[in-house]
Amino acid sequence: MATNPGTDQQDVIFGTDTTDTLSGGFSSDRIFGYSDNDVLSGGFQGDGLNGDNGNDSISGGSGADTIQGGIGADTIDAGTGDDLVIASRTELDGDVVDGGLGFDSLWLSLWDHTTALTFVAPDPIAQSTLLGGIKVTNVEQFTIVGTSFGDTITGGRWNDVLSGGDGNDTLSGGIGRDSLNGGTGDDTLNGGNGIDVLSGDAGADTIRGGYGNDSGDGGDGNDELYGEAGNDNLTGGNGDDALSGGDGDDVLSGDYGSPQGGSDTLDGGSGDDILYGGAGTDSVTGGDGNDYVGVTIGNGEDTINGGAGIDTLEVRKLSGTFTAKASNLSNTLSDGTTFINMEAYSLTSGFGTSTVENWTTGDGNDTMYAFDGNDILSSGKGNDYIDAGVGVDIVNSGDGNDRIVAGNGGKDTIRAGAGTDTVTIERRDAATALTFSITGVTGTINDGTTVSDAEHYSIYAGSGSDTLTAGAALSVKFYGANGNDRLTGGKGSDWLDGGAGNDTLTGGDGNDTIYDEGGANTVDAGTGNDLVDIEIGSGTAANSVLLGTGNDLVKINSVDGLTAGKFTVDGGTGTDTASVNRSMGTANMSFVLSPNAVLTNGDVTLRNIEAVQIWTGSGTDSLTGGALNDLFHGGAGNDTLKGLAGNDRLYGGVGADRLEGGDGNDTLQATHGTRFDTQADRLYGGAGNDSLRINQGDYADAGTGTDRVYVDLANQATGVSFAFSNGTVTVNATTKFAGAESLEFYGTSGNDSVTAGALNDVLKGNSGNDTLRGGAGDDLLEDGAGNDKLYGDAGNDTLIRTNEIGTDSFDGGAGTDTLKFSLSSTMSVKLDLANSANNGGMAKGLTVTGVEVVYGSDRDDDIRGTSANEKFFGGGADDFLFGGAGDDVLEGGAAGDLLQGGTGTNQFVFHSDGFGTGDQIVDFTRGQDKLVVDRSDFGIAASGNPGFIIGANPTASGTGPQFLFETDNGRLWYDRDGTGNNYDAELIVTLANGSTHVSTLAISDFLFV
């Protein structure tokens, strides 16, 4: 006999051939009992337990456990958590399984059973004997692997996985999101309620989705698939299949993508359906709604009827001549496919072919893709999309707001017709210069292309020196590519991209976007609020930019920060901003913002610019802003940055920098991005509410206003000790600050001792044995590695544990203080506010006093309170929350939680639980405690109460949101739409008071917020 307790580590524990008592520790353990009658206990985390032979007693404890009793009459108590219990046919007899709290699953593998199986998933609340041998309670989900005979398997209320195996099986999912696989044989699958996945596999199967948005796949054989209610996705597979979508917007595929065709029958039913017959001779009926039917020339002689509604026929690999008839007239394609009642078309020629297409559609919203060839494409009154592809094409788009694309090849004729039309002309392969202009309503390109009645143009030119002029177009997008291009916008908001070369770009009216790169460029942005972005990769070519009227932004080398190019920018009128990136430079640069300012050694002249953003390089730079909001990045070197007026942002970079914010609410950072610069920076906030960040060796004078100083010493090994004040504070021998009203501190790797001030401060301890005091105000304190002491003091403070290693002491002090856990761990939170000696997991070694609010982790937490009034939030997973004495607020969060308010007037808070696992309250007292429901999360109107139905077996009434309470077991359900089909009822909570379930409930027991 062996007695083997686990440790705090992840253990693998083996028993012996005799009776063993084996228990896990705090981590996730694997425990094997072997032969004889063993006692296995899982512990606090998710464990794996296997009893093997013998009559074993297995307790999972908390956590998501995986339990297999093995051969013998086993007693299994899965405990709290979302547990999985596994058993095969030879392991069932005499077993007793209690899933406990949480969403628990039972996996029964019965493939070797010698007779047909009949299985009905039981209600989890009462013990049931299944398959003549195993007793089950508190199990919500079942995974059943059937026999080789004709099985009848029925799921329950939750998400079941049912597999029929061989034989002619009948599988029914019931309520929930179920997965059904018929296996071989002629099977009948019924999804029931919920979003189900049904697969018939081999055989002549019958599949019915039921309520919900289901997916059905018939597999091999001549199958029948019925989507019924919901937006379903049905695939027939190989064989001659019959598919019926039913209600909803369905997708039906006879054998679409399958290597073997079949003669399928598809009926979309009501709704806007998508139907593909695939290979074979298919019969397709759209039914009611606006349907979309797809065919491929050569796949078979299909018969298609769009039915009622505005239906679209997609034809792939279409070639030659096609003329749409009136929708009520039958039409025939080249492969013998006939169709009727189609109002719109999506036509695609064979990819890579050069046949001449002559297509004419009707007045629907049509789509045509002609690819190669000299095509004639004509549409009617709808809003059409026509891609003529490569070749010399003729496009007549008719009335409507059409989009037309003409590929390379040239000499296209495009007649856009009435409406607001957009024409895109692709000429990227052009090696000679293109010229585009508009006269009246006709646009012409010098390659012979003409466009009439278009309002918007996009033209992609090639490597020549192009001249593209917008004229009377409402808007244009011109792409010049290589060459010395001249692009001229018009009266709209245009997009001009000159590409490489020496370009001349004119924006005109509107809010234009202008890009250029390389060469000596001339830009006139014109009126409007424009964006000009010029990137020069090499050389010293001169670029001239006139922004004109409006509030404009010009960017110079914003991507790479190179020193190439020379720039003269005139902002014109308006409030203009220049963004100049010379961060790769090595020379000493200087700049003072003025009506005629020069970035010395940066080759940039700025005239009539009101605000600047400047990045300099490794030199010793001096930058001075103006009256508005400026941005300076000094880079490496000993820089001087002055913001003057406005809300400025000054970043020093590496080096001994001097930053002066001046007036306004400024942001000053000594290094910006690196903690390893220990050179002596000097920061002066000036007037306004400023933010100043310093490192080792720096000095900050916050100035007047309500200022905040950030002290980041994360790269320092020697600890510091200081108390915050509004005067001069000495952090260490070389680091000081003065004039600040609040503090953010990021500690050293040594032992720090820091006391904050009267406002809302942030103290983070890093490694080392730190002592952090928040002082007055609502402060945030983090421990870090080491043995730390955190004192919130006065105010509503937040204390955060970020490292589970160490012996820490947290004292919230006066006010309503919060404890949070922010760390990546395989363990969960075990916290007892009344006795810290019981703490474990993420709270191991933590002593807590003066805390009223606790947030758990995303694992299975155990949080217990005191006699004070407390708020506990469990977070994800299956938690146990105990309020103790006092008026407590408990919110379990996601998954199935065990809640115990204790004495006092308690509130239990619920958000809609989409998984439907439900919580359990073990001490709910009517007239004293309240169920708090979030209206928004539950989809309940801002005023008034939802429906409330009570009874032994309450039934939803109407289609509004409603709660249903079962008087014989204390279960409370919620249904968002009552008798509607879009939502299933979800189990919210099971109410008990001691060993007795709550037998009555009223709307007055709720508090809707």
UniProtKB/TrEMBL annotation:
Membrane in keyword set: yes
Biased composition (Gly residues): 209-219
SUPFAM superfamilies reported for this sequence: beta-Roll
Biased composition (Low complexity): 230-244, 253-267
Disordered, as annotated region: 173-192, 208-282
Pfam families (alphabetical): HemolysinCabind
Compartmental location: Membrane; Secreted
Keyword GTP-binding attached: no
Highest taxon, organism lineage: Bacteria
A GO molecular-function annotation: calcium ion binding
A GO term from the CC aspect: extracellular region
InterPro entries found in the cross-reference section: Hemolysin-typ_Ca-bd_CS, Hemolysn_Ca-bd, RTX_toxin/Mannuronan_C5-epim, RTX_toxin_determinant-A, Serralysin-like_metalloprot_C
Assigned keywords, A-Z: Membrane, Repeat, Secreted, Toxin, Virulence
Protein name per its UniProtKB record: Calcium-binding protein
Source organism per UniProt: Rhizobium fredii (Sinorhizobium fredii)
